[in-house]
Amino acid sequence: MSVLMYLIPIALLLGLIGLCAFVWTLKTGQYDDLDGAAHRILIDDDEKPPES
Amino acid sequence: MEQLAISDPLRVREQLDTTDKETGYRNLVKRGEDGTLSLSFLVSGVHCAACIQKIEGSLKAQNDIERVNLNFSSGLLALSWKGEEDRANDFASLVEGLGYGVKPFDPESFENTQKKEERFLLLCLGVAGFALGNIMLLSVGVWSTSAETMGMATRDFLHWISAIIALPTILFSGRPFFRSALKALSNAQTNMDVPISLAILLASGMSLFEVINHGEHVFFDSAVMLTFFLLVGRFLDFKARQSARSSANNLLKSIQGFATVVEGGQRRRVLIKDLTEGMIVSIPAGETIPADGEVVDGNSTIDTSLITGETLPNEAQEGAYVHAGTLNLSAPLKVKVAKAADDTLLSDIVKLMDQAGQSQAAYVRIADKAARLYTPVVHLMALLSFLGWFFVIGAEWQDSLLVAVTVLIITCPCALGLAVPVVQVLSIARLMKKGVFVKSGDALERLSSIDTAVFDKTGTLTYGEHRIVGEYDEQDLQLAASLASVSAHPASKGIAHSYAGELLKLDNIEEIEGCGIRGIYNDQEVKLGSRSWCGDAKTPESEHVEVWLATSSGRKTRFSLQDAIREDAQSTIVQFAKNNIHTVLLSGDRKQVVDVVSEQVNIDEHFAEQNPKQKFEKITKLQEQGHKILMVGDGLNDAPVLSQADVSIAPGTAIDLAQQSADIVFLGDNLSSVHDAYELSKTSQRMVMQNFALAVLYNIIAVPLAVVGMVTPLIAALAMSGSSLIVIANSFRIKFSS
């Protein structure tokens, strides 16, 4: 059962990393504009804006 | 119809906005500590990735811009730059020049508090999700083996880790429930969050006690899971409310913007929210009136469809009182502001809606009522059987516990839990096939208990659209429709919609505000418009709305238009009467018109010339008298009453806000759908009651057997599933009911 002694901390740590990542995405406002993100993926960074 | 009436003026307005270069954005610039200037404003007309790129790219190309971000969902553009404050106007006109509409935005409005609330819920949900995953990982180990195999120490160790994860999580993620429960309790009231909080806290408290005493009844997993799933529900609920609110917000945005104030011969652009009583505002034709007030100069027609729901424009002369949100159609007006923007009829509507949304949340669903009664009884029964077996009969504590567990399993309220939703899902699916969309499951439950049905007139009992009545020459009609198709005036739309054939091509078409439209066809001038402009003054007045078509050869034709009553309006009202439901007509239209309509459809009671607030009060009064109300309406003026009524139905042609406030939306021209929905709700409620009866019957037979220890947990589990199956089978009968 000593395997638990390091498996449980590893499991918790992995979960915690996920949680931290989630909190980070939340704090940086990545859920504020969900519809926009769906469109932005189509924009190439190196492309010039279309002439109007 | 009303949807068109609203969207079209906005389009006109946007066009006007772009020609009218804004100069007020300078006042909205905020200066940061490091000298960075920032500005937020609303951009309309953003549809795709290219739009985002065009706007952001063009702004980024400006040398002084530091950061630019366009939020696609809310249409909010946030800019920051270093340098001159005056650049604000340049940026706004740059975006306008690209072909998008811009409007000022006040970042301190309540959209921000909404955003905070959403983030808070998401954070609670995220933390609960993390804790749930990890505790489940440990619980699988605890469940799959016994203390003898893994050893007391290991089990306690796993329990302690669960406790360390669970307790902070519950304190953190349970806050939405605790707060709401505390708020209710401090008002000496109770709500659903009180038992939820109690259950979560009791489960965690008892588990902690067990862990300290090396016990085995540790339910941290259940407590966290309960929190997680309740939070998911809470978040979805929040999102649904938010979409309703955002349309209310859009409404407020329509009175956000600039108004032209005239002071001592000088014109000045000010923010609408800064308007104060007594200011004189100048409103060009085609613009929305920014505040309630009295006309001091000018003579125009006003489209009041936004406020009263009526489709035909009203005349506004000097001395007339006009409301914010209505549209000035034909000529410039000067209006003396009587109420500040926060105080207008339009913001009253938004406030009423918020109020109504809260009162409806107080509705207790029948399943919740049952659960509240059932859960304590079950737990008490399990406890009593344990105590009875242990103390009275003197059995071993393990055996006593086994009996208690069996009682818990056999009474698992699955059958009760299924009794309502299965019926509702099947009924909703059946209605959907008929083009009736039910937005919430409990809407049917509320619909089945109504005793009063309140109808709006325009767009509900009538088609909400002026259509041509009578027979006309095909050629005249074609000519009139061709001219009318270019105009957004309700009467023009009525003519254009009444003609299905090919349109003619006319030259030099021109719309003359307040008169009509003219154009050239086959070298002849053709006019379509009012009697005074191109009509024959000698013809006697018609009781309907009239539009004249005149050609330069002297031919004059009169078209009569009428907002026709839906074909099945009368039969629907009669059917409701057969079910002993009191019918009421509540309209914002003039008394003569309402009298005629109510006569024609045989409605029990009618009230004319009701503004949104009066409608709202009428409904609240009826509710105070103990009536359960169904509201059927389609306009903005109906939105507050749709939210306040016990249950509400809107036609698919209703404006967005009305559709969002309504519980049920029906498509097509048939008002009878309203009655169909009512009939089915009755049937489904009967099914629900039968299901409850079945579940109770099952418990009456099974529980005593379990209490006396005649069933093993395995048989109990089978019996429980069996009862659920019976309930589901019974519910499916609704598919075959007539």
Helical residue percent band of chain A: 55-70%
Average predicted confidence as pLDDT of chain B = 77
Major sheet details of chain A: none
User: Average pLDDT of chain A, to the nearest integer?
Assistant: 81
- Number of E-type strands of chain A: 0
Query: What is the helix/strand order of chain A?
Result: HH
Structural class of chain B, please?
Answer: alpha+beta
Q: Please state roughly what percent of the residues of chain B sit in beta strands, choosing from under 5%, 5-15%, 15-25%, 25-35%, 35-45% or over 45%.
A: 15-25%
Distance between the termini of chain A: 69 Å
Q: How many structurally independent domains of chain A?
A: 1
Distance between the first and last residues' Cα of chain B: 34 Å
Rg of chain B is 32 Å
What is the overall silhouette of chain B? Answer: globular
Low-confidence stretches of chain B: 1-21
What's the overall geometry of chain A? elongated
**Largest sheet: number of strands, sense, barrel closure of chain B:** 7 strands, mixed
Summarize the largest interface: chains and residue counts.
A-B, 29 and 36 residues
Helix count of chain B?
26
Radius of gyration of chain A: 20 Å
What does this molecule look like?
The complex is a heterodimer of chains A (52) and B (738). Chain A has 52 residues and is mainly alpha-helical. Chain A has one domain. Chain A has two helices and no strands. Chain A has helices at 3-27, 34-40. The longest helix of chain A has 25 residues, at 3-27. Chain A is elongated. In chain B, the strands form five sheets. A seven-stranded mixed beta sheet of chain B has the order 15-27-26-25-16-23-24, sandwiched between helices. The model of chain B is unreliable at 1-21 (pLDDT under 50). Among the domains of chain B are: 2-106, Alpha-Beta Plaits; 110-255; 259-343, Distorted Sandwich (Calcium-transporting ATPase, cytoplasmic transduction domain A), CATH 2.70.150; 464-564, Calcium-transporting ATPase, cytoplasmic domain N, CATH 3.40.1110. Chain B contains 26 helices and 27 strands. Chain B starts with a helix and ends in a 7-residue tail after the last helix. With 738 residues, chain B is of the alpha+beta class. Helix content of chain B is 52%, strand content 18%. In chain B, strand 26 (647-651), helix 24 (656-661) and strand 27 (664-666) form a beta-alpha-beta unit. The A-B interface holds A 1, 4, 8, 11-12, 15-16, 18-19, 22-23, 26, 31-37, 39-43, 47-50, 52 and B 48-50, 52-54, 56-58, 61, 70-74, 98-99, 115, 118-119, 122-123, 126-127, 130, 133-134, 137-138, 150-151, 154, 157-158, 161, 165.
